[in-house]
Amino acid sequence: MCMPYLLYIIETIVLTVLLGFVGIPLAKKYKARQSIRTEGPKSHRAKAGTPTMGGLFMILAAVLVTVCNHFMTETVIWLIILTLGHCLLGFLDDFIKAEKKRNLGLTAKQKFTGQILLALLFCYGVSHALNLPFAIAIPFTKVDISIGWLYYPFIVLVIVGASNAVNLTDGLDGLAAGCCVIAFIAYAIYSLWLGMPDVASFASVMAGCCAGSLFFFRSIVSPLLYCMRRDLLRQYLEVYRMILRILGKKVLRWLKRRQQCVKKQRRPPSAGSLLCFFIL
Q1: Quick one: pLDDT band at residue 173, thresholds 50, 70, 90?
Q2: What is the Cα–Cα distance from 42 to 139, expressed in whole angstroms?
Q3: Pairing with 205, which of 32, 37, 234, 247 sits 20 to 30 Å away (CA)?
Q4: How distant is the alpha carbon of residue 151 from its chain centre?
Q5: pLDDT above 70 covers what percent of the chain?
Q6: pLDDT digit string, tens, across residues 42-66
Q7: Which of 207, 152, 168 is nearest to 184 (CA)?
Q8: What does the H/E/C string look like for the chain?
Q9: pLDDT of residue 151
Q10: Distance between CA 200 and CA 178 in Å, rounded?
């Protein structure tokens, strides 16, 4: 039963890698390269000039596998519209960065406006075109909670929040893509449990294109990853050293206070007061 979905994942991984070998040289040729903020960590400055717009060949692979395997139901079409809409926002953001040679692409207001419009369009599609009720299904139960027209702001909150959550996760190479692989596989399993094989197929395809992108993070950017690991290790050691220094000073203050209380024949502070010292 799971074999077709595994094949979708494998097909998309292979196609994403093949399109990446074509797309990355084109990105370099047309100077679509990453710009890094000067006020950011020094370890991130080594990534300046890295080819960007990699999401284009990922989404192209996902759409091709979806079309070729003939599971283009109405539900999947609306999912593709939502995905392509966010892909367009990402493309415009990267295009402005590459064209103006700066880290800032679309402004926050422009991104939020685009995301909200896409979420409203998707909500209209799934509720009217597919005749779905304005209700929230409780996972792993048969309970549906009807929320009426609150369904629109709820769906907007979920879609816009999830989109920005992925954007916040994207920091180190492969971090967002790796998390998305796990999330899409979970969506595929849950969709199968609900009896929605078309949604499970699309989730498997999206997991495959995210997994395929990891190939380039590990091969092209491996020297940068090594440098970043060294810098991150140094930063972690600095943080732990600072924490130990602060805690050590607090312990010495607590011991000094306890010794003064013993000399003055007062009740010495308890171990609980040491915890308060740490908090304060």
Answers
A1: low
A2: 44
A3: 32
A4: 24
A5: 68
A6: 555 455 555 566 678 888 999 999 9
A7: 207
A8: CCHHHHHHHHHHHHHHHHHHHHHHHHHHHCCCECCCCCCCCHHHHCCCCCECCCHHHHHHHHHHHHHHCCCCCHHHHHHHHHHHHHHHHHHHHHHHHHHHCCCCCCCHHHHHHHHHHHHHHHHHHHHHHCCCCCEEECCCCCCEEECHHHHHHHHHHHHHHHHHHHHHHCCCCCHHHHHHHHHHHHHHHHHHHHCCHHHHHHHHHHHHHHHHHHHHHHHCCHHHHHHHHHHHHHHHHHHHHHHHHHHHHHHHHHHHHHHHHHHCCCCCCCHHHHHHHHHC
A9: 87
A10: 18
- Rounded (5°) CA angle 88-111-190: 70
Per the structure block, which two tokens stand in for 12? 């998309």
CA distance 189 to 196: 10
Q: Is the pLDDT of residue 240 over 80?
A: no
Q: Quick one: tokens of 37?
A: 């903020």
pLDDT category of residue 212 using cuts at 50, 70 and 90: confident
